[in-house]
């Protein structure tokens, strides 16, 4: 009877462990090189995106070199960081200032990519390249311009998308939730 129970439970336990691993992988996004590109995204002008075109965000509660999202399970579930292996350095794509790219220590021997000293994140609700569903989320999550400023407002109609500086600000201090 005991052997039969173990034989029946073992596949369920293994499936549960695999599911947890898949969930963790889904909330942690990394690339071998951590390439950050600039891309035009209407209506916000030119903003930072990953090498796959997914929008990158900044959390206004973070400080330079400080990730305040990682300590909150809800926050880190929906806002996975852009990570690189500890031995890798992030790469600046077209329109991105390499002097603003850096990393800070992250979990599991990884490094989180920063821009202008501030950590960069993805939004779990953005399922494909070009989506901006995390913009202005709870008034503390914003897309980032190539200058490193938060983009808090859509660009005025006819304003183009060249520099991505219209509607940007570097103010912070809002609180999560």
Task: Give the arrangement of secondary structure elements.
Elements: H1 2-27, E1 29-30, E2 35-40, E3 46-50, E4 57-59, H2 73-78, E5 82-85, E6 91-92, E7 101-105, E8 110-115, E9 118-119, E10 141-144, E11 150-151, E12 168-169
Parallel strand pairs: 1-5, 2-6
Antiparallel strand pairs: 2-3, 4-10, 5-8, 7-8, 8-9, 10-11, 11-12
Summarize the structure.
By secondary structure, the protein is α+β, with helices and mostly antiparallel strands.
Q: How would you portray this structure in words?
A:
By secondary structure, the protein is an alpha+beta fold. The chain has helices spanning 2-27, 73-78; strands at residues 29-30, 35-40, 46-50, 57-59, 82-85, 91-92, 101-105, 110-115, 118-119, 141-144, 150-151, 168-169. The model is unreliable at 5-28 and 159-177 (pLDDT under 50). The longest helix has 26 residues, at 2-27. The protein has one domain. Strands 1, 5, 7, 8 and 9 form a 5-stranded mixed β-sheet that branches. Strands 4-10-11-12 form a 4-stranded antiparallel β-sheet, with no helix packed on it. It is globular, with a radius of gyration of 19 Å. A hairpin with a 2-residue loop joins β8 and β9 (118-119). It has 2 helices and 12 strands, in the order αββββαββββββββ. The relative contact order is 0.21.
Biggest beta sheet attributes: 5 strands, mixed
Query: How large, in whole angstroms, is the Cα Rg?
Result: 19 Å
**Structural class determined from secondary elements:** alpha+beta
Which percent range describes the beta-strand content?
15-25%
Number of continuous helical runs: 2
User: Element order, helices and strands?
Assistant: HEEEEHEEEEEEEE
């Amino acid at each position: 009877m005991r052997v039969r129970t173990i034989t029946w439970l073992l596949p369920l336990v293994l499936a549960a462990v695999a599911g947890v691993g898949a969930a963790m992988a889904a909330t942690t996004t990394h690339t071998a090189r951590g390439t950050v590109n600039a891309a035009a995204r209407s209506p916000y002008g030119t903003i930072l995106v990953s090498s796959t075109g997914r929008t990158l965000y900044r959390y206004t509660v973070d400080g330079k070199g400080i990730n305040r999202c990682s300590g909150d399970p809800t926050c880190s579930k929906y806002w996975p960081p852009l990570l690189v292996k500890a031995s890798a350095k992030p790469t600046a794509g077209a329109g991105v200032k390499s002097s603003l790219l850096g990393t800070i220590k992250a979990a599991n021997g990884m490094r989180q990519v920063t821009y202008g000293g501030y950590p960069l994140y993805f939004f779990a609700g953005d399922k494909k390249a070009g989506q901006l569903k995390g913009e202005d989320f709870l008034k503390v999550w914003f897309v980032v311009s190539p200058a490193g400023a938060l983009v808090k407002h859509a660009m005025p109609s006819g304003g183009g998308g060249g520099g991505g500086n219209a509607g940007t600000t570097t103010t912070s201090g809002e609180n999560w939730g």
